Amino acid sequence: LTHLLTHTHYDSYNSTCSLTRVCVSAPPSTHCLLQQPCRLRPHHVCVDVDVRLRSVTASNGLSTISHEYLKGSYALDLEAVKQGANSLPHLNKTLVASCKRLHGEVDKVLCSLEILSKVFDQQSASMVSRMIQQTMSQGGDQELEHLVTKLAILKDLLSSIEKKKILFGQYKCNRSLWKVPTIYKNKCVCVCVSQVKLDVYLADLTKIGKSQKYSLSVDVEGGKLVVMKKMKDAQEDWNTFTHDKIRQLIKSQRVQNKLGIVFEKEKDKSQRKDFIFASAKKREAFCQLLQLMKNKHSNHDEPDMISIFIGTRNMGSVPAPKSMGSWILSRGLGKTLDEMAVTIPHDIYVFGTQENSVCDKEWVETLRCALKDYTETDYKPVRHAAAPRNKGAVGVSFMFNGTSFGFVNCHLTSGNEKIHRRNQNYLDILRQLSLGDKQLNSFDISLRFTHLFWFGDLNYRLDMDIQEILNYINRKEFEPLLKVDQLNLEREKNKVFLRFAEEEITYPPTYRYERGSRDTYVWQKQKATGMRTNVPSWCDRILWKSYPETHIVCNSYGCTDDIVTSDHSPVFGTFEVGVTSQFVSKKGLPKSSEQAYIEFENIEAIVKTASRTKFFIEFYSTCLEEFKKSYENDTQSSDNVNFLRVGWSSKQLTTLKPILSDIEYLQDQHLLLTVKSLDGYESYGECVLALKSMIGSTAQQFHTYLSHRGEETGNIRGSMRVRVPSERMGTRERLYEWISVDKDETGGPKGRTLPPRAGHDYVR
Fold it and tell me: Distance (Å, rounded) from C-alpha 694 to C-alpha 278?
C-alpha cells in the first residue's frame, strides 16, 4: 500500500485520505507492442480509484483494542502457554478484530486492480479473481492467514501491472506477450516472454487410472510457476514456485507428453510431481518457457544456451512472396512449434536460398524487415554470401563466445539418376570449402566446428514408381517413402554425411509442386532433350553434426504449406544449442601445483592403408597454446593387407597442459586427433574426443571412428584421463542440464545419427 499511495491529497475537514490517481511506471527499455493505437502516456498507465481511510477513528479504535488485550486477555494467553498450549487464541481474536477494516480496504484495492489487470492480462486476471473470491469466502481461525494471502496477491498483482505496460494482443491460448530485453555481456538479446496457462493432469503412478486436473501458469517475467489444482465446487488450490525452487525437469521418453517437475520444498528436501500434457508439443512448449524463465533470471553474464532458426528454400528464380510469416514462425506441416512457443524469437536466424533472383542487398533487407514484422525485434545481419552459379555451395562460420558454428548452404546436381554426382558434389564441398580456423586445415569442415549445419536443395530423390509414391502421399504414409529416399540410403552406406544427424521427417515431399498450389505434384517436365520425370521428393533438407557430449535439440523440422510461388516448399528447422562462455578463471592462471594435465596411458589405431610406414599423432584444441605431437608408434601389426594396426604406449605419448585448469572450463573442451604417416606427413584419419567424460583420478576408455576427407578410414581407442587439481574442481550446472530424460524408461530420441556399420563402434 505504501507504493500505491504515492500521489495523494488530504482533506483535513473530514479526516480522509483520497487516492485520486495511481500512476504505474513501466521501464523505458520495455518495448511497446501494439496492435491498435493507444493514447496512454509513454511510460505511465493511469487509473482512477478512490480509497478513503478514516485515520483518526481507526487509530483510536486500534489503540483501545490493544489496551484491552494487554490489560485482560494477555494474562489468560500467558497462563495457557504455561499449561502447554501451542496457540494464543485471545491474541488471535484481538488481531482479527484489529484487521477487520484492513480486510475491507484491501478488498477494495484488489477489486480496482483486478479491473485494471483485465486490460493487460485476462489470463492472470481470471486466476486472480478466483483467488480473491476464495480468500474472501474464508473466515474463522484462518482469517489472518487469508489476509496475508490477499496482501501477497495485491503485491504480486501490482508488480505485474507495473511490468506489463501495453497490451500486445489477444491470442487463441489467452496469453499476453510483451518484450523484455535480456542483457548479456556486451550484447542485448531481446526475447519474447509470456504468461501462459496449461491444463494438465497429475499422473498417479501408484494407482493407474486416477488423476487430478491441474493448471500450470508460467510467468516468465516474474520468474514464477503457479500450480493450481482443480477442487470440488469450482474451488481451486494453488502453489507458487519461484524459478530457483524448480530444481529439475524430467522428460519421459516412453510417454512423450509426460513431464516430471522436481520442486524444492525445504532445504535439502525436494518433491517430484509428474504431469500429463495434452500433447508432446504442449510439453515441449512448456519446457521452453520454463527454460526461458530460468535463463532470464540467471545471474550469469553469458547464456548457456541459444536458439537457432535455419530455413532453406529453392525460390525457383521468382521474386520473394509478399508474406513469409509461416516460414519464419515455423508454421505448416511436420514437426512444428506449439502456438505458445512460436512467437518467441530465436537468437540467430540463418536463411539459405537456391535459385534466388533477388539482388543481395534487397534480399537481406527483405529478411530484416520480415523478422522485424513477425518478431518485433531488430536483427543485425552477420554475414551474407552468394554463389556465382546455379549449383554449388557457400558457407559462413563464426565464434559465439567459446563455441564455434559453421553453416553450409548448397545446391547439388539434379536428376533422379545422378546419385553419384550428388555424392561427389558433397565430398567436393566438404574438402574444398574454406571455412573455419585455418590452423585446422588437417581436418575437413565436418570436424572444425562445435556445431556444423548443412542444408539446401540436396536434390536426392525417391527410388519408387511415381504412382506408388502418389498413393503413399495421399494416405500420408511417409515411412515406406523414407526407406527408398536416396539420401537416407547413401547415408546408411556411409557414402555421404558421415555421422551427421537429421530430425525425423513427418511432412510430405517438398518437390515438385505445381506453382500457385500445394495440392498437385507436377512430375513431368519438358526439356530440350525430351520429357523428364521428376518424382515427388524430399529435396530440401537440414542436417547437422556436433562434437560429442555437447547439447543440441531439434525442436521443429517441417515445411510451409502456404508459400506457393516456387515448385519447392520452404523448409524450416529450429534448434536449442548449448554454448560455452569465454571463460575467465576467478582464481587466475594456475600455479605449478594447480596445473591440470591430459595424460594418455595408451592409444591404438586401425588405419586403412597397405603401407607399413611409421605413424605419429597430432593433438589440437582451443585449450592448448599450440598443437602437440606424439612420438612414432612403438607397436605395429596387420591381419589384413588393406589395414594396419598401430599402437603407442604412454612413453610415446605427450602429456598435454591446458592453458586453464578449472574443471568448469575443461568439461566444455574437445581434443582433435589426426593420425599421420612419417614418410609423407599425410593424414590417415581424424577424430574428436570430449574431455568431459575423461575428467577424474583414474583413466577412462575411449573408442571412436576415424574419418578422412568425408570417408570412414578406421577407428581409434585408448585410455586417458584429465587430472584436475582439487583447488580447481568448482563447477555449476548448465541450463541445458536442468532438463533430463527419465532414466527408468527405455527408448531413444528419433531423428538422430544413423548407426555405424558393424566392426566400427562409435562411442561418444
Answer: 41
Q: Pairing state of beta strands 246-251 and 643-649?
A: unpaired
CA–CA separation, 333 vs 507, rounded Å? 5
pLDDT recorded at residue 182: 34
Phi, psi at residue 267, to the nearest 5°?
A: -60, 125
Residue 281 carries which side chain, given as an amino acid letter?
A: K
pLDDT at site 450: 98
Using one digit for the tens of pLDDT, what is the confidence trace for 715-733?
999 999 999 998 888 788 8
In whole angstroms, give the CA distance from residue 427 to residue 442: 15
Q: For residue 557, what pLDDT band results from cuts at 50, 70 and 90?
A: very high
- Residue 291 to residue 288: CA distance in whole angstroms: 5
- Asked whether the beta carbons of 639 and 674 are under 8 A apart, the reply is no
The span from the CA of 576 to the CA of 552, in Å, is 6
pLDDT (0 to 100) of residue 758: 34
Q: Kindly report the CA angle at 633 between 655 and 431, in degrees rounded to 5?
A: 85
- Partnered with residue 722 across adjacent β-strands are 598, 695
DSSP H/E element including 103: helix 100-120
Asked whether 46 and 23 are in contact (CB, 8 A), the reply is: yes
Q: Give the type of residue at 371.
A: L
pLDDT at 191 over 90: no
Of 700, 733, 736, nearest to 719 by C-alpha is 700
What stretch of H or E contains 672?
Answer: strand 670-677
Q: Give yes or no for a contact between 597 and 657, defined as CB atoms under 8 angstroms apart.
A: yes
Grid coordinates representing 188 are 542485448
Q: Are strands 628-629 and 392-400 parallel, antiparallel or unpaired?
A: unpaired
| Alpha-carbon span 434 to 438, nearest angstrom | 8
pLDDT of 426-478, one tens digit each?
999 999 999 999 899 999 999 999 999 999 999 999 999 999 999 999 999 99
More confident residue, 239 or 39: 239
8 A C-beta contact, residue 416 and residue 523: no
Kindly report the three-state secondary structure assignment for every residue of 367-421.
HHHHHHHHHCCCCCCCCCCCCCCCCEEEEEEEEECCEEEEEEEEECCCCCCCHHH
User: What's the rounded mean pLDDT across residues 149-160?
Assistant: 72
Give residues with Cβ within 8 angstroms of 433, minimum separation 6: 393, 395, 408, 445
CA torsion 345-346-351-357 (nearest 10°) is 20
* Average per-residue pLDDT for the chain: 80
Give the C-alpha separation, 228 to 130, whole Å.
11
Alpha carbon distance 22, 8 (integer Å): 9
Q: Looking at residue 153, what is its pLDDT? A: 75
One-letter amino acid for residue 74 of the chain: Y
Q: How many C-beta neighbours within 10 Å does residue 70 have?
A: 11
DSSP 339: T
Quick: pLDDT tens for 330-339. 999 999 999 8
Nearest partner of 533 among 457, 458, 470, 455, judged by Cα:
470
Separation between Cα atoms, residue 400 and residue 636, nearest integer Å: 42
| Residue 199 pLDDT | 56
Residue 142: count of CB within 10 angstroms of its CB: 11
- CB atoms near residue 741 (< 10 Å): 13
Q: Which tens digits make up the pLDDT trace of 248-297?
A: 999 998 999 999 999 998 777 899 999 998 889 999 999 988 988 988 88
> Which residues, in sequence order, are CB contacts of 671 under 8 Å at separation 6+?
598, 619, 620, 621, 656, 688, 689, 691
Between 111 and 61, the higher pLDDT residue: 111
Looking at residue 735, its pLDDT comes to 83
Amino acid 718 reads G
Which of 419, 573, 412 is closest to 490 using CA atoms?
A: 419
- pLDDT higher than 60, residue 43: no
Burial 671-695 (b: 16+ CB within 10 A, else e): bbbbbbbeeeeebbbbbbbbbbbbb
